[in-house]
């Protein structure tokens, strides 16, 4: 990184910090508990350029490195994790177009994605297909200059408020191996594309999660990302490296926020005539929490730097995602215990952290899957 790049990144991070302090922190608690989509915050993110964070400058984006982007995600998650999902899913969609789209697709879509004029995400999961994406049932068949899409997607972030989604479908159900029959389309809201319901969640509120229906939805053939069918699975797998680093960074944010709250509360709360931070049992917990958060941060940084070097980093991203999200989950529980009964109250942020953290261990590939990916890559990289 050059000195100029470092200065630019510092300015961007400073702007994000001011945005969080001024426009997110004072409102997050109420918006989250009301499960209200944060329209004003989204507009501020547009102004900051966050919807173009990782999109190249040639298309109007900020062109940030994955390392800087992960730092932004961590900082936002420390204040309100839900906000990160509004721009992360969007950026995975944009990355698919930027990395694999035709020149015409890049010119048409990326500037509008970068400005936030068009926002969206990725539609992968189905009622019977989550981790095993090759089992999707949503199908598309060619009809003239269009592809006709039919099927259901579920747990889709930005499904209600988004304008366009990158949708994974089967264009050749008979293909073997199965992944060769899967394609990725950009589908705008319109006839044949409806939101069947908003999904209620334990945490991660504010951002909309929806079930989507496609019924004889005609999609222009020019919206097939890359222009050639059968390449969609590889596109999504490549995009999930960025997605998993993002989720790992969220885990760091949750872990650090839980630590911050525990450290603060432990100095205020007194028992037996002294602040609880002076009791050895609390000190042991705080020491574990701090070490866990920092170790997670370093794993995320390692994965992001590998991504920035253009290296295959599914193992590094898997390690970061697995450890950092477990760190967020464990630290949120530890913070609740440090707070005692107040940790179970909606008055303090800890209960929100405790509700948000479990999602991270499931989304973008379960942590069980991450350990399998790590092991397989470990063997592949170290043959006897």
Structural write-up:
With 384 residues, this protein is an alpha+beta fold. It contains ten helices and nine strands. The chain has helices spanning 3-34, 39-48, 66-79, 82-100, 103-115, 232-268, 280-308, 314-339, 350-362, 367-381, and strands at 120-123, 139-143, 146-157, 164-170, 182-188, 193-198, 209-220, 270-271, 274-275.
Q: What's the end-to-end separation, in Å?
A: 37 Å
Strand content: 5-15%
Number of helices: 10
General shape: globular
For the sheet with most strands, the description reads: 4 strands, antiparallel
Run of helices and strands = HHHHHEEEEEEEHEEHHHH
Helix content: 40-55%
As a whole number of angstroms, the C-alpha radius of gyration is 21 Å
How do you describe this structure in short?
The chain is an alpha+beta fold and 384 residues long. It contains ten helices and nine strands.
Topology, please?
Blueprint: H1 3-34, H2 39-48, H3 66-79, H4 82-100, H5 103-115, E1 120-123, E2 139-143, E3 146-157, E4 164-170, E5 182-188, E6 193-198, E7 209-220, H6 232-268, E8 270-271, E9 274-275, H7 280-308, H8 314-339, H9 350-362, H10 367-381
Helix pairs in contact: 1-2, 1-3, 3-6, 3-7, 4-5, 4-6, 6-7, 6-8, 6-9, 7-8, 8-9, 8-10
């Amino acid at each position: 990184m050059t000195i100029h790049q470092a200065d630019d990144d510092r300015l961007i991070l400073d702007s994000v910090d001011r945005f969080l302090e001024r426009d997110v922190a004072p409102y997050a608690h109420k918006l989250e508990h009301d499960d209200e989509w944060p329209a004003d915050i989204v507009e501020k993110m547009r102004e900051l350029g966050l919807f173009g964070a990782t999109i190249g400058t040639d298309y109007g984006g900020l062109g940030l490195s994955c390392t800087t982007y992960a730092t932004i995600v961590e900082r936002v998650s420390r204040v309100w994790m839900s906000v990160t999902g509004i721009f992360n899913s969007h950026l995975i969609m944009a990355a698919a177009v930027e990395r694999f789209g035709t020149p015409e697709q890049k010119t048409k879509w990326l500037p509008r994605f970068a400005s936030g004029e068009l926002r969206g995400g990725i539609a992968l999961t189905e009622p019977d297909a989550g981790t095993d994406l090759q089992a999707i049932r949503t199908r598309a068949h060619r009809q003239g200059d269009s592809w006709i899409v039919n099927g259901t997607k579920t747990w889709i972030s930005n499904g209600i408020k988004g304008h366009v989604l990158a949708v994974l479908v089967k264009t050749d159900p008979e293909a073997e191996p199965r992944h060769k029959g899967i394609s990725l389309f950009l589908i705008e809201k319109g006839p044949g594309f409806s939101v069947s319901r908003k999904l209620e969640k334990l945490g991660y509120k504010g951002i909309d999660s929806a079930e989507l229906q496609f019924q004889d939805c005609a999609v222009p053939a020019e919206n097939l990302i890359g222009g050639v069918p059968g390449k969609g699975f590889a596109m999504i797998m490549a995009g999930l490296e960025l997605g998993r680093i993002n989720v790992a960074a969220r885990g760091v944010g949750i872990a650090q926020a839980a630590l911050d709250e525990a450290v603060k509360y432990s100095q205020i709360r007194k028992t037996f005539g002294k602040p609880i931070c002076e009791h050895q049992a609390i000190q042991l917990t705080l020491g574990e929490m701090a070490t866990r958060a920092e170790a997670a941060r370093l794993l995320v940084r390692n994965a992001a730097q590998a991504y920035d070097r253009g290296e295959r980093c599914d193992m590094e991203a898997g390690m970061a995602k697995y450890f950092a999200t477990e760190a967020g989950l464990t630290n949120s529980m530890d913070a609740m215990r440090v707070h005692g009964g107040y940790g179970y109250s909606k008055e303090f942020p800890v209960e929100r952290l405790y509700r948000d953290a479990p999602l991270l261990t499931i989304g973008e590939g379960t942590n069980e899957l991450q350990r399998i990916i790590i092991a397989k890559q470990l063997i592949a990289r170290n043959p006897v």
